[in-house]
Amino acid sequence: MPERTISSMFDKDHERLDALFKSFQTLKRTDFLKAKNAFLEFKAGLQRHVAWEEEVMFPLWEKKSGMTGGGPTIVMRNEHREIGDCLESLARKIQAQNPETDREEEILLDLLDRHNMSEEEVLYPEMDHLISAEERETAFRAMEKIA
Q1: Are 54 and 80 within 8 A, CB to CB?
Q2: Per residue of the chain (147 residues), what is the pLDDT tens digit?
Q3: H runs (alpha helix) in the chain
Q4: How far is CA 80 from CA 36, 77, 141, in A?
Q5: Measured between alpha carbons, how far is 36 from 52 in angstroms, rounded to an integer?
Q6: Orientation of helix 72-95 relative to helix 58-65, angle to 10°
């Protein structure tokens, strides 16, 4: 069995979240209840993903890289706040059973595309390079404790 890496684990979660969001988009005008459930699962998953990064990965990156006063994690934390604000705006419309969410979806997807590219091309590969297999497994165990 291949070794589990930060890149592979987070990339797989990005793919899972993307599929949930696509399901929401596909269903929102034909089966709003199923669409809403897909969105709620997406939202909870994205919030957990952000918590994994901010509570486990970013502190580990900062410790191992020595970049504590700036660098990519500061930018990514700011992007997480923007993503969270957009996610909440979308959630309010969905809670009101309003399927007219195209503009909010476009904004969210643009933010996520740029953010995920930074993570997938820079942060995750660097994490795989900087940390040992033991540190990686410790990080994965810490992430499993985040609901």
Answers
A1: yes
A2: 567 899 999 999 999 999 999 999 999 999 999 999 999 999 999 999 999 999 999 999 999 988 877 788 899 999 999 999 999 999 999 999 999 999 999 999 999 999 999 899 989 999 999 999 999 999 999 999 997
A3: 6-27, 32-52, 58-65, 72-95, 102-118, 124-130, 133-144
A4: 22, 5, 23
A5: 24
A6: 170
Report the distance separating Cα 6 and Cα 53, nearest Å: 11
Q: At what angle do helices 133-144 and 6-27 cross, to 10 degrees?
A: 30
| Structure-block tokens of residue 95 | 């809670």
Q: By the 8 A CB rule, do 97 and 32 touch?
A: yes
User: Tokens standing for 43?
Assistant: 């939202």
